[in-house]
Amino acid sequence: METYALSIIGILILCLISLGLALYSGMSKGKAGLLSGPVADARDENPLYRIDRVHMNSVEALAPFAIPAVLAMIAGVDAMLLATLVWLHLIIRVVHAVVYLRGGEPAKGGKLRTALYVLSGLVTAVLIVVVGWAAIV
Q1: Per residue of the chain (137 residues), what is the pLDDT tens digit?
Q2: How many CA atoms lie within 13 A of 41 on its CB side?
Q3: In sequence order, what are the residues at sequence separation of 6 or more whose Cβ sits closer than 8 angstroms to the Cβ of residue 69?
Q4: Do 6 and 84 touch, CB atoms closer than 8 A?
Q5: What pTM, to 2 d.p., does this model score?
């Protein structure tokens, strides 16, 4: 497994980011006197909404990426290729979170935030194809 150390570290960082965003979301809602769960004022201008959504986006993106990444190690995908995909996905997810949390025009739907979300989905799709190919050859 040491050949996959970079990939394992990247996946663990993705998990820590998701956990950190969950804590940040909960603390932010608590400070505002709100219960956990969806924010009632669901507008991009509402920072609590953005915090909640960036957390949920991280959760939504984690499983479809982490599961194939682990399967890639089992299937023997080239370690450097896997590390490249993991770290590319990680960088995109971090930039996505920063853009979303900052708000403003780039964070609105159909803008930079959406492009980053789609790009991370494409990296995930490439990973799935690579793992599928490794499994059948």
Answers
A1: 679 999 999 999 999 999 999 999 999 988 988 877 776 677 878 888 899 899 999 999 999 999 999 999 999 999 999 999 999 999 999 999 999 999 888 888 778 999 999 999 999 999 999 999 999 98
A2: 10
A3: 7, 11, 82, 85, 86, 127
A4: no
A5: 0.91
